[in-house]
Amino acid sequence: MNLHLTQALVPYEIAARWRKDGGFTDSYAWHKRAWDCFPGQPDAARNFLTRLDDTGNGFRLLILSSAEPAKPDWCANHGWQSKVIGENFLTHPRYRFSLLANPTRKLAAPRDAAGKRRSAKRIPISTREDLLDWLGRKAAQHGFSITIEEIRTIPRPRQSFVKTGKAGLHTATEFTGILTVTDPELLHQAFATGIGSAKAFGFGMLCLSPF
Predict the structure, then answer these.
(1) Are residue 161 and residue 77 in the same domain, yes or no?
(2) Which of 20, 61, 72, 102 has its CA 20 to 30 A from that of 117?
(3) Domain span holding position 36
């Protein structure tokens, strides 16, 4: 399966203009704008990952998808780049990586009066020790290993959003460092489908550079 990596650059003035129409108001709005790149799929399941970064000159939206995206109206021609990721890209033994994640842990869910267990609640992870423990577990699950001492944990601003009239909040941490591949198949799957929770809100994309 071919994967497409797309970069859409959105200057601040464009984002501000669209903001008036609810276009770029929060992380959920950016998620909806990403769907503009896949027209004619109103009932499709999300099969792409996104990541949003503030570059200092505007916003950079990265999209990793199995289907080739189409340039939306809110992105100028010179701000749009899309390419197919080569078949050999995921054959290297080591990579530099960056992962923008929403690290959380589940609390034990209480039972209701009928004895039925309620939905588990997720709470954010914040201390460096717990963040590294979270990343270590994810690495083991997804086919790579890391050296804890070499990992940087970079706090990002919290992301609030409104979805179907309900407010929500995500905490964000960027992990950077070097990973060593232990299971190429699992790593390939993690690269294609993401790591951790809140993937629809711009988290979980594993950005790699051969090392």
Answers:
(1) no
(2) 102
(3) 4-84
